Amino acid sequence: MTRRTQTFMKGDIVLAPFPFTDVEIGGKTRPGLVIAALPDDTSASPTDQILILCAITTHEPRTPHDIRLTAVDFRSGRPRYDSTIRVARIWTIASFRIERRVGQITDAKLAEVVATLNGILAQ
Predict the structure, then answer these.
(1) What are phi and psi of 77, to 5 degrees?
(2) Of all helices (H) and strands (E), which one includes residue 120?
(3) Residue 32, domain member (yes or no)
(4) Inside any domain, residue 6
């Protein structure tokens, strides 16, 4: 696998292999929202990061923790479809496994995601 040197930040929308719970190996490439980008201190490369992502789907919101995502919520890039951020569906991934960045959400939308995540963790 070729290592990518791109760095990511909170609020980026990326394409990454999503680890579905009902798939034994691998996963499908899906969009995710970066909610944390941490240095990977186990890597020899200073640009490698550990990313914490929330899943994004085109399905309608199903739970109180799901947040709708539309074109007005993007600072850069554009969504192909209106989507839903599944704040309770979180996974970690090494940054070199990210296929690409597709956009970045606004500060207001990111604050909504963080507040929702804080509410989940406070339960």
Answers:
(1) 75, 175
(2) helix 107-122
(3) yes
(4) no
Concatenated DSSP letters of 45-98: STT-EEEEEEEEESSPP-STTEEEE-GGGEEES--SS-EEEEEEEEEEEEGGG-
The pLDDT tens digits for 86-109 are: 999 999 999 999 999 999 999 999
pTM of the model: 0.89
- Residue-wise pLDDT for 14-38, tens only, equals 999 887 655 555 568 899 999 999 9
**Contacts with 117 (C-beta within 8 Å, 6 or more apart), sequence order:** 35, 54, 87
Which residue segment(s) compose the domain that 67 sits in? 12-122
Domain with residue 108: its CATH number is 2.30.30.110
Two structure tokens written together for 86: 């599944």
Listed in sequence order, the residues at least 6 apart from 118 whose beta carbon sits closer than 8 Å to its beta carbon are none
Contacts of 58 (CB under 8 A, 6+ apart): 81, 82, 83, 84
Neighbours of 107 (CB within 10 A): 10
Domain count, the chain: 1
**What is the Cα–Cα distance from 22 to 9, expressed in whole angstroms?**
29
